[in-house]
Amino acid sequence: MNQASISPSKFSSRFKSFFRGNLGGWIVILAMVLLPFITSLISGQSISNLLANESGMAKFVQGLAIEIFILALYALSYDLILGVTGLLSFGHAMFFAVGAYLTGILLKSFGWSLWATLGMVLVAAIIQAILFAVVLPRVQGVTFALVTLGIASVFYIVIQSHEMSAYAGADVGLQGVVAPEFINAADHRMRFYFVTLGLLIGMYLLYKRFVNSPTGRVCIAIRENEKRALMLGYNTFYFKLIALTLASITAALAGCLHALFQPIVSPHTASMGFTIAALLMTLIGGVGTLSGALVGAAIYRLLEYGLKNIFGEQATFLLGVVYVLIVLFLPYGIIGTWKLRALQIRSGWQRLIGLVTGKPKQA
Amino acid sequence: MDGSIILETKNLRKEFGALVAVDNVDLRVQANTVHAIIGPNGAGKTTLFNLLSNAFEPTAGKVFFQGRDITHLPTHRIIHLGIGRSFQITNLFPNLTALENVRLAAQALGKDNFRFLRAASHFKRYEQRAWEALNLVGLTDRALMPARALPHGDQRKLELAIILAPDPKLLLLDEPTAGMAAEQVPEMMNLISQINKTSSKTIILVEHNMSVVMNISDRITVMHLGRVLAEGTPSEIAANPEVQNAYLGKLYGDMKKREA
Questions:
Q1: How far B7 CA sits from the closest chain A CA (Å)?
Q2: Which of A40, A68, B48, B89 is disulfide-compatible with A50, CB 3.0–4.6 A?
Q3: ipTM field
């Protein structure tokens, strides 16, 4: 309602400041939108060839980018509960795997439509967030991490069990998920690319807004000092439940996309290792920064791909070395460290300007 | 002072194993007064405070606020009744700005806590309330500093601003001058006294520094080994021989005699 009364000039200046404040973000979005076309140009593939979904460099790069977007969505959801709300969960892979397996099973074994499947994934995501939240008021810190690890481990065992093998494919995983034709990643790679990119951007903006909303501010307060937040009169349980639910829905959506794209779901997605992957991606990018999760996901996937290409199976060891180095040299992650530096540089400039103009620096 | 009783405890008792930290305490605090609870280290002052603010469950006994039994209310409900509590050990959100620390306190009692699709800056009234509280304690020029970067004295003032922000009826201050430089103590005490007078709030404060509370308190309760040793006006307490022996020691008694 307020917006309507804003004069055009004021609106345009507001738009400009919004644009400038997020310049880096706009550049990244633009680069991602142009990525398929640029790679086709570089590899000498014609645009019409690209649009016809011919295989080539561009299609391959899109595939890699889709994997990164899905991982980024997953890492983003982990950052919301670890970085923003301060809950250390070791069961996050379950959030992802429930979405992936449910999508695969409902589409393949039950022949559900994609929309009905999505609805079911949403319901399951909310239920599992509540399942995690049930233990929240009773345990804290490391104990919460262990309880969530326990819940996720049970799921990991169940999904690989002999009894479930007809649906989930036991330790081989769920093979041959039937993605609906209009979003089939093999035939409509670029469409899938933009759907995933759009979902990631939308979710990122939603998360940004959430963190800066009254609810998100309380989540940050819980991370900083939960006892004090209680003393201020907040029933912290509900805020943790909201953060968990949002994270669970996001991770399940990422899992759903994963099942549609691959189209196989390996039990690895439910394992402890996959939770560690989420932890690593957020650590690399910077805990609590949100954008760090996206950067972390890109680095994680590209490093893994690059090193595996060069060194084969030994890459895992090298990956470990790289992660240790990143944590040693950039303890706040890439985005976190960069934000700190940017602040120092800015205040340095202010001091310099103050020296030159002779005005006292602002406190 | 013939105001109504705002806070009352009946036979309040807290045991930690074999240790009786608070031993059948009956406390009656009149509205709009400054009521100090003093006593040597280990007298049970802070435990009593934790019982009043429901951070601990009492072993036995009851707490009444404005006639209502609040003994078993959860911590986060207490503040909604109008009780604000500060801590002896500075207990802030260290990485958030002073303003955000207070803004969160102001927001807590509003109805917008679950509006997660709107920016927090949209809700101006909480921010305004936070500025008012910061202004009251004289911290407006440091509002945008992270709480951890504030000097200790300012952190204590920030603590006060945080509990003032929701406009409580009763303030529970646990050693508001703890760790403060000696020259800052009178300033803090003036501030507390001023809050009591200008906005007619009831203040209960715990101190172990007797001289600090003598000037600003209306009533003083002296605790010793978990029990109430004496209660009365500051002059009654100062003259009480039992108090002098148990707590003030000979030195203070001599000092008083010299003054007289």
A1: 19
A2: A40
A3: 0.81
